[in-house]
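Propose amino acids for all 428 sites.
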C-alpha cells in the first residue's frame, strides 16, 4: 500500500511530486518509484494510471467503498498439486522450505488481477502443526512464529510489486474441536497477531471457520490489532457445523466487530452466493451495514448444497476433483452475479487458479477502472481470430462460450456423486 502523502520521483527527472487524496499528476509512459524504495511502477495507459492512483493510495475499506476488490485464490490445494504441500495435513511449511514456489504463486495472482496478497498462513498455528505431526524434529524452524513471519515477508514483497494490500490470514485451530477452551484457542490466535503487528500487515482476514463461536473468538483476537477485519465461514444454506443458520452466523460476526463478513471454501460459487443472499437479508433486517465477501471453491458441488460438511465429503476429494473444475466462463458469470448482489470482496479458495482470478478481474474491469496486469496476453474471445484453425476462429464470441455445456469426455462419467452419511465426530 502507498499511503497518501507519500512522495514519488520520476525516473527521468529529479523533481519530487506528492500523492495526496485529491491531487496526483503523473504523465503516462512514466516510471515511478516510492522515495522509500521498492519496485518501479510503469504508468503506460490511462487504465494503468487509474490503477496507480486508485489502488496504491487507499487502505482496505476505502478500496471497498470505491469499487470491487479482487482477492486471490487457492494456495494449499494448488501448491499440493505443484509438489510443495502435503495432502491431508494441508499445512504451510512451504513458506520456509520452498519460498520461491510460494512467491511465484503470489505473483501469478498479482498478474491475474488480485488486489490482495493473503499471507500463506492457513493452518499455521502451533497446535495444528503438532496435530499434523509434520517435521516434529524441526520445531525450532517449523513453528507458528517462523512460518507466519516468512509468509508475511513473501506476501509483502510481491504486494509491493503491484500496489496490492497484504492480508494476515487466520484459520481454525484443532484446540477448538478438542475442547481445550477459549484461553487455549485465543493463545494460538494471539501468537499470529504478534507477528502480524510486527510485519505491519494492512488488514486481517479470518477464514474457513466451521463454528460461529470460534469465528467470534478469532474476531476478538483480531480486534486487538485495531485494523480492518474481514471474516468468512465455510457455511452453506444448511449453516455451520453446530447447526447455526447462515443468517445468525452473519449477524454474530458483525456483532463481534467484523467490517466484512461472508463465506469461503466448502461450496461452489453459486451455492455460496445463495448463502450470501441469506446473510445479506438478515444483516439488513438487523441493521448492520457491513461489506460482503465471497471466496468459494473452484469446483461444481451442487450435490452437497444441503450438507454442512462441504466439498471434502465428495468421493473425488482430493485426488480426482478435476472433472468438477469451473471454467473461466463459469467464474465470469459468478463475478457478475456476486457484484450485482452487492458483494464487494470477490476472490476464490481451494481450486481457484490464477486464470480463474483473471476471469473475475476481466469481468469487473469497468467497475474497477482497470484491467489486470497480464492483459498483454489476454485478448479475450476475439484472440481466437488469430488461429490458423477454422474450428477456433468460429468460437471467437462471448455468446458461443456462454451457451456451451462442456463435456467430460468420459464414457462412464457420473453427473452427481453419491455422498456417504455423516459419521459422529467434529471437523477442525
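Proposal:
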Amino acid at each position: 500500500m502507498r499511503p497518501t502523502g507519500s512522495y514519488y520521483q520520476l525516473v527521468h527527472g529529479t523533481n519530487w511530486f506528492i500523492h495526496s487524496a485529491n491531487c496526483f499528476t503523473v504523465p503516462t509512459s512514466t516510471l515511478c518509484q516510492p522515495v522509500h524504495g521498492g519496485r518501479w511502477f510503469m504508468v503506460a495507459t490511462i487504465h494503468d494510471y487509474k490503477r496507480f492512483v486508485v489502488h496504491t493510495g487507499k487502505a482496505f475499506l476505502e478500496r471497498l467503498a470505491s469499487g470491487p476488490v479482487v482477492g486471490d485464490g487457492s494456495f494449499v490445494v494448488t501448491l499440493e498439486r505443484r509438489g510443495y504441500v502435503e495432502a491431508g495435513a494441508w499445512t504451510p511449511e512451504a513458506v520456509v522450505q520452498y519460498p520461491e514456489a510460494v512467491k511465484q504463486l503470489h505473483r501469478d495472482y498479482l498478474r491475474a488481477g488480485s488486489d490482495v496478497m493473503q499471507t500463506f498462513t492457513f493452518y499455521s498455528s502451533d497446535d495444528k502443526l503438532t496435530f499434523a505431526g509434520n517435521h516434529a524434529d524441526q520445531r525450532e524452524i517449523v513453528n507458528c512464529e517462523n512460518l507466519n513471519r516468512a509468509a508475511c515477508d513473501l506476501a509483502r514483497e510481491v504486494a509491493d510489486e503491484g500496489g496490492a494490500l497484504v492480508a494476515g490470514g487466520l484459520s481454525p485451530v484443532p484446540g477448538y474441536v478438542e475442547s481445550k477452551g477459549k484461553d487455549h484457542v485465543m493463545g494460538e490466535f494471539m501468537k499470529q497477531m504478534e507477528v502480524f503487528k510486527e510485519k505491519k500487515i494492512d488488514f486481517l482476514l479470518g477464514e474457513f471457520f466451521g463454528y460461529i463461536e470460534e469465528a467470534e473468538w478469532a474476531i476478538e483476537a483480531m480486534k486487538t490489532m485495531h485494523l480492518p477485519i474481514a471474516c468468512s465461514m465455510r457455511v452453506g444454506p444448511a449453516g455451520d457445523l453446530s447447526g447455526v443458520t447462515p443468517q445468525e452466523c452473519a449477524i454474530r460476526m458483525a456483532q463481534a466487530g467484523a467490517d466484512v463478513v461472508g463465506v469461503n471454501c466448502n461450496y461452489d460459487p453459486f451455492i455460496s452466493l445463495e448463502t450470501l443472499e441469506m446473510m445479506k437479508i438478515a444483516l439488513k433486517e438487523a441493521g448492520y451495514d457491513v461489506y460482503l465477501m465471497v471466496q468459494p471453491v473452484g469446483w461444481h458441488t451442487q450435490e452437497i448444497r444441503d450438507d454442512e460438511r462441504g466439498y471434502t465429503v465428495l468421493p473425488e476429494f482430493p485426488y480426482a476433483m478435476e472433472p468438477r473444475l469451473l471454467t473461466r466462463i463459469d467464474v465470469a458469470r459468478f463475478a457478475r452475479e456476486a457484484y450485482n448482489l452487492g458483494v464487494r470482496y470477490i476472490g476464490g479458495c481451494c481450486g481457484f487458479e490464477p486464470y480463474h482470478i483473471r476471469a473475475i478481474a476481466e469481468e469487473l474491469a469497468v467497475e474497477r477502472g482497470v484491467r489486470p496486469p497480464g492483459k498483454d496476453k489476454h485478448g479475450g474471445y476475439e484472440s481466437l481470430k488469430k488461429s490458423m484453425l477454422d474450428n477456433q476462429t468460429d468460437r471467437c464470441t462471448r455468446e458461443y462460450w456462454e451457451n456451451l455445456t462442456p463435456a467430460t469426455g468420459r464414457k462412464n462419467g457420473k453427473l452427481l456423486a453419491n455422498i456417504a452419511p455423516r459419521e459422529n465426530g467434529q471437523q477442525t
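The chain has three domains: 7-51, 59-371, 377-405. DSSP finds 17 helices and twelve strands in the chain.
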